[in-house]
Design a protein that fits this description.
single chain, alpha/beta, BirA Bifunctional Protein, domain 2, eight-stranded mixed β-sheet, three-stranded mixed β-sheet, 5 helices, about 25% strand, mitochondrion, Octanoyltransferase
């Protein structure tokens, strides 16, 4: 896959809304850089500019849905009663859950600069999740054909993937259940897939797997799959 540097922003446990705000600033900066290069009619650089990979752990329970999966009024009220927040986001996919014990990876890349198609990008995220799970001791982890996007262990989804792409700039990405309380998924049809379940690394490995223990293996797998250098930064914009 195309290379180039990726800036890693480690936010730690933060509200989902804050991670989204950081992502949107990154998207704005990436889009401005792409438009500036296009206006200057400059040839593409030999290496794409650095773009961010925003990693966080949602600090509070939130149900989020994409373009096709808004919950009805009664379900929304029920979810609020459970103490969860609600968020409509610009990505593909139906309603899913984000919360403590989950690694949230928001990926902002210029696909045109990296000469990468959207399906290849999604497939790359799936490959990252599969390699990570297998590296941690879950050899049965696999990707499946659409519409079963994500990373699966049997009939349980361990990582959900939902992305948005506008003007070749991606946003959103992958949510991996590390030690997530899976009971939160019982109140919805996760990702709109009837009859399918969810799982976590902790469940599959039979031990507690916190997000902090998964960060470095995840970054190694991301670097392998996308063939990129990683640069760590505290700032959401270059």
């Amino acid at each position: 896959m195309p290379g180039g540097a990726v800036r890693v922003l480690l936010l730690g446990p933060v509200p989902y809304s804050l991670a989204l705000r950081v992502q949107e600033r990154c998207v704005g900066a990436a889009r401005a850089a792409a438009l500036g290069a296009a206006a200057a009619a400059a040839p593409p650089p030999p290496q794409p500019p650095q773009q961010p990979l925003v990693l966080s752990e949602p600090a509070e329970p939130v149900y989020a849905w994409g373009l096709r999966g808004a919950p009805g009024v009664s379900l929304a009220a029920k979810l609020r009663e459970k103490g969860a927040g609600l968020a409509a986001v610009r990505r593909g996919g139906h309603v899913t859950y984000h919360g403590p014990g989950q690694l949230l990876a928001l990926v902002v890349l210029d696909l045109r600069a990296r000469r990468l198609g959207l399906r290849g990008f999604v497939g790359g995220l799936e490959e990252v999740g599969v390699r990570l799970c297998r590296r941690l001791g879950v050899p049965a982890a696999t990707a499946r054909p659409p519409p079963l996007t994500g990373v699966w262990v049997g009939d349980g989804k361990v990582a959900a993937i939902g992305v948005h792409c506008g003007h070749y700039i991606t946003s959103h990405g992958l949510a991996l259940n590390c030690c997530t309380d899976l009971a939160w998924f019982e109140h919805i049809v996760p990702c709109g897939l009837e009859g399918m379940g969810v799982t976590s690394l902790s469940r599959e490995l039979g031990r507690h797997v916190p997000v902090a223990d998964v960060l470095q293996p995840f970054l190694h797998c991301f670097q392998e799959v996308f063939g990129c250098a990683l640069v760590f930064s505290d700032e959401p914009e270059a």
